[in-house]
Amino acid sequence: MKPRHKRFLLIGIALVLLGGATALVLNAFNDNLVFFHTPTEVAEGKVPQGRSFRVGGMVLAGSLTRDADGQSVRFVITDTAKTVPVFYKGALPDLFKDGKGAVAQGALGADGVFVATEVLAKHDENYMPPEAKDAIDRAHKTAQTLN
């Protein structure tokens, strides 16, 4: 085999290996990608079925209840336009309270209840996750245009 053919063969093998590695990286990235959705998007069915995503907004005042086992909680997240019931089993962050901003990560169950695997709460009086703040601002604007 001529040196020129060997070089083309090596370049071809390198391109195939590079393409395979790129495909593996993109597949792993896609599996770990988690999108943020608002309660309005969840209510309208614009969320992935069977995939993990985040939903955020304000914890509806008076909606926080603990199950008998003491480890499970139920609450409702709202963007002031729509609400999403959430079930979470585990310890909540210390700053998690009614009427405060929160983001839950998990998946939507067949019954319409969001089953969270992780719950995040705001960490000071002025902080709210940017996605949740944008969602609430959009919901307020939509409500104002409808009135």
What does this structure look like?
The chain has 147 residues and is α+β, with helices and mostly antiparallel strands. It folds into two domains: 1-33; 36-146, Beta Barrel (OB fold (Dihydrolipoamide Acetyltransferase, E2P)). 35% of the residues lie in helices and 28% in strands. It is built from three helices and seven strands, in the order αβαββββββα. The protein has a five-stranded mixed β-barrel with strand order 2-4-5-7-6. A hairpin with a 4-residue loop joins strand 4 (72-78) and strand 5 (83-89). The longest helix is centred in the N-terminal third of the chain and has 30 residues, at 3-32. The chain is elongated and about 80 Å long. The termini are far apart. The mean pLDDT is 85. Residues 1-7 are cytoplasmic. Residues 29-147 are extracellular. Its main location: membrane. Pfam families: CcmE. Heme chaperone required for the biogenesis of c-type cytochromes. Transiently binds heme delivered by CcmC and transfers the heme to apo-cytochromes in a process facilitated by CcmF and CcmH.
